[in-house]
Design goal:
alpha/beta; N-terminal domain of TfIIb; Rossmann fold; Dimethylsulfoxide Reductase, domain 2; 5 domains; six-stranded mixed β-sheet; five-stranded parallel β-sheet; 26 helices; 36 strands; globular
């Protein structure tokens, strides 16, 4: 037997990699135990802006990102983009080595190629194209380049820019400034085509301040006029779906009502009524009233908003834009024209992807073909990388020293949380290399040089805190000039609205599997997006849901499945940016269509093809049956919130609240839940939830432990969001039906799932009225969505305190049992009561909608929430007595005009 065993072992050993040494701590750092978590302040960027995060690191591996309380752009919370940034670190699709004409190369070879090509000492013919740069260190390196090579050309460009915002501010105030609203000081907000609660660098901060004001009494009032339903529109007290022509009419009506010297145009009755009520409330709330215009609105609309805010003495500041302040679209157009003309000798693209997202009229791919030397520095392969002569790998933000400014201008020092995985460099190192071929990777020295004004003590404080104190610019004084109004466009064809994807942004997150598999807050689509149309208009044009339609503007067209969406304005087709990628890796390639191919078009034609296209959605029905009176309340001005009547029951009372053990429970306030899905991805990162891919999602095998349902309430497009984790029912229907007692209850009120007992009968799933249990049909932990890439790096992200589940077991929300256990172990070791436990979803929520704690303590936050008059339980009449309960969504009724 020993010989047979020895032979078998020899056979196996011959097919496996050689053993590698593992070096233990010689002297274990004090207070450090294997698997223990340390927290470090750092920063991750979105669209060039930095947002502070706290990195949770165990055994030298970052496993989770949470918000940084000291940073004004995050305030202790996260959004989907901050959460998914962690997966980018471990993504096997990342660029790992320098590539060039000879194949795999070195940084020295690439530097030699760049500097050999430079034909003049002044830098003529060299162009650097970057994304938005707010990093003081990168800007310092750019200025060094300009001093050394005065003729070098720099163009900063983002697909989602501030051009119209700055132009509108200049029309109204004479200065190119950015508005910074203060929603915490506003009693009335009017959003015209704006989605401040939607995706973007400002989402977390705006949502936090808005939610704080929302909880105050009397509650504020939110008016929203927009072409397509957004997160902000979903939370409106009064919303109207308007096409761009009627949005312009709304501005004219408001100007007339607010005292502008203009005549009110003819408009539909609902629009006239909406404008009258909004104008009345804005005027009555002078000093605490805000008018917001959307990024995609014309400059004249932003000028009107600036005029109105000045008239209303709005709670709003004006700041200078960070970094270069040129007109991005115009600068990119000029660069492309010079490339076509052969005036550019060397093009260096740094963290931008113009081949994918630049307007098609520029033919950027063709322009690159006219440039003798093209170099692209990027974290991931993309369309621009594929056409470049040289490719330089950029390090992940968690691997290097960096600095960024937030949307308000606050500077933050970003420290690395892990050593570089690959032969990559920071963006500041790449800029230094352009000027000096001998430059090496010294991101710490470069950032420290930028902040040489900080002594060692101040530097350490800034690194630990994650922000540089008093680094935000002071607001600028402005005086609004004469009234400017947007032109009213004719509706000869369907208006086109290109919106940033709430999961992929402008396409920069398309390679991220967590982002692809996270549902769109409005349509609930994953792994792709449809074209959104008005439901009645689709019926009139005989376009079926899911039917492929050709959307054309001039010579450009894309084909997408049509989707009838509540809250969509007639005559408007809305498409999401970020899809239609190629040469970008297995996760992104071939998913959806590239909306940027239609950028610049104001109107499009729609042609049904008669064929159907694939759409993958996690929610098919948005209507509610029998729950409306509980989850939705209309509150008139000055009216008290009516208390909900509980259903009578013959079942025993709830568990004793004075039990010796903590009795864990959760409440979710749907009045401030904005449906952003930060909680969904936070749960995925915390609990090792696998990505299963579009085919499995289409089969209905979603593995997320938490979902956010959207419900439509009325014909006025009133809608809301409802996060649904496990209810942890005291009378759990899943428990008595399990033949092996895998679904059990513990003394602290938790409904637990014992994985090593589960035999996969799925009777518990069938008996759950809330449909929150997930069955692991396959061994998803070993089924890769990353194609041929070696995805072993993904395992390094996994939380060591959470079991990685195998095929054939049922899983669900555990209230982050591992965090509860850690708190209880600490309390036991120190002889103290169990301290505060914060679940992953609760930590992520930008509006603090989720409250968790022990209801055995009557003074706990969760106990107080359950005494709120808006408190209710989902499907309460079933008698399951859930520990997860809700506070109802309210609408602040505006009364009579």
């Amino acid at each position: 037997m020993r010989l047979i065993a020895g032979g078998a072992a020899a056979t196996v050993a011959g097919c496996t990699p050689p053993n590698q040494k593992i070096y233990p701590y010689v002297n274990q750092p004090e207070g450090t135990l294997p698997g223990s978590i340390r927290r470090y302040a750092t920063t991750v960027p979105l669209a060039g802006y930095g947002r502070g995060v706290t990195g949770l690191v165990t055994d030298g591996r970052p496993i989770k990102l949470e918000g940084l309380e000291t940073h004004p752009a995050s305030l202790g919370a996260t959004d989907l983009f901050a959460e998914t940034a962690l997966l980018d670190l471990y993504d096997p699709q990342r660029l790992q080595t320098v590539g060039g004409p000879p194949g795999i190369a070195s940084w020295a070879t690439a530097a030699e190629a760049i500097h050999t090509r430079r034909s003049t000492a002044g830098g003529e013919g060299i162009a650097i194209l970057t994304g938005r740069i707010t990093s003081p260190t990168q800007l310092r390196e750019l200025n060094r380049l300009r001093r050394r090579f005065p003729a070098i050309r720099h163009v900063a460009w983002e697909p989602l820019d501030h051009d119209t915002v700055l132009a509108g501010a200049e029309m109204a105030t004479g200065k190119r400034l950015l508005p910074r609203p203060r929603p915490q000081d506003a009693d009335v907000i009017l959003a015209i085509g704006a989605d401040p609660l939607g995706p973007g660098p400002d989402q977390i901060a705006f949502a936090r301040h808005w939610s704080e004001r929302r909880r105050a009494s009397p509650p504020p009032r939110l008016y929203v006029a927009e072409p397509s339903l957004t997160n902000t529109g979903a939370m409106a007290d009064r919303r109207l779906a308007l096409d761009p022509a009627n949005l312009a009419r709304l501005a004219h009506l408001l100007a007339a009502a607010l005292g502008g010297a203009t005549d009110a145009p003819d408009a539909p009755a609902p629009l006239v009524e909406f404008a009258a009520k909004a104008a009345r409330d804005l005027s009555q709330a002078k000093g605490r009233a805000l008018v917001l215009a959307g990024r995609s609105e014309p400059a004249e609309m932003h000028a009107f908003a600036a005029w109105a805010n000045a008239l209303l003495a709005a709670p709003l500041d004006w700041i200078e834009p960070v970094g270069d302040t040129g007109t991005q679209a115009r600068d990119l157009t000029g660069l492309a024209a010079d490339m076509h003309a052969g005036a550019i000798d060397t093009l260096i693209v740094l963290e931008a992807n113009p081949v994918y997202a630049a307007p098609p009229a520029l033919d950027f791919a063709g322009a690159m073909a006219q440039v003798p030397l093209t170099v692209t520095a990027s974290q991931f392969p993309n369309e621009t990388v594929a056409l470049s002569d040289w490719v330089l790998p950029i390090s992940h933000p968690l691997e290097e020293w960096n600095d960024w400014r937030g949307p308000d201008g606050t500077a933050s020092i970003a420290q690395p949380l892990v050593q570089r995985f690959y032969d990559s460099r920071a963006a500041s190192d790449v800029l230094a290399l352009i000027g000096d071929p001998a430059a090496t990777a010294e991101s710490l020295r470069r950032v420290r040089t930028t902040w040489a004004n900080l002594d060692d003590t101040a530097w350490k404080i800034a690194v630990v805190a994650g922000v540089v104190p008093d680094s935000a610019p002071s607001p600028q004084p402005v005086t609004a000039g004469s009234l400017v109004l947007p032109p009213i466009r004719s509706a000869d064809a369907s208006f086109l609205e290109i919106r940033p994807s709430p999961t992929l942004w402008d396409g920069v997150r398309a390679n991220n599997a967590w982002a692809q598999e996270c549902p769109d807050p409005i349509s609930k689509e994953v792994w792709g997006a449809s074209a959104r149309l008005n439901i009645d208009e689709m019926r009139e044009r005989a376009i079926g849901d899911g039917e492929l339609i050709r959307i054309a503007a001039g010579e450009q067209s894309i084909t997408l499945p049509a989707r009838g969406t509540s809250g969509q304005a007639r005559g408007v087709v809305t498409i999401m940016a970020g899809y239609g990628r190629h040469d970008s890796g297995a996760v992104a390639d071939g998913i959806g269509e590239n909306a940027w191919r239609l950028s610049g078009a104001q109107a499009v034609t729609l042609t049904p093809t008669g064929e159907r296209g694939p759409t993958v959605s996690t929610q098919g029905v948005f209507a509610l049956d029998g729950e409306l009176e509980k989850i939705f309340r209309v509150i008139a001005p000055g009216e008290e919130v009516p208390e909900k009547k509980h259903q009578p029951t013959l079942l025993p009372n709830h568990a004793a609240k004075d039990a010796p053990d903590p009795q864990w429970a959760m409440t979710i306030d749907t009045d401030v839940c904005i449906g952003c899905n930060a909680c969904v991805v936070a749960c995925q990162a915390e609990n090792n939830i696998p990505v299963i891919g579009p085919e499995e999602m289409d089969a209905g095998r979603d593995m997320h432990w938490l979902r956010v349902d959207r419900y439509v309430i009325s014909a006025e497009d009133v809608t809301g969001f409802q996060p649904v984790p496990c209810m942890h029912c005291e009378k759990a229907p899943c428990e008595p039906v399990c033949p092996v007692e895998a679904s059990v209850h513990n003394s602290e009120g938790l409904n637990l799932q014992v994985y090593n007992r589960c035999i996969g009968t799925r009777t518990c799933e069938a008996n759950c009225p809330y449909k929150v249990r997930r069955f692991n049909f396959f061994d998803y932990s070993s089924r890769s969505v990353w194609g041929d890439a070696d995805d072993a790096s993904i395992t390094a992200q996994r939380n060591p305190n959470v079991t990685v589940r195998d095929r054939g077991v049922m899983e669900k929300c555990t209230y982050c049992l591992q965090r509860i256990s850690a708190a209880e172990h600490d309390a036991d070791a120190n002889g103290t009561p169990v301290g505060k436990v914060v679940t992953a979803c609760q930590a992520a929520c930008p509006t603090n909608a989720i409250t968790f704690g022990s209801i055995s303590d009557p003074d706990s936050a969760v106990s107080r929430k359950k005494e709120d008059p808006r408190h209710y339980a989902m499907l309460e009449d079933l008698g399951t007595k859930p520990r997860t309960t809700y506070l109802a969504r309210t609408v602040n009724d505006e009364g009579e005009a």
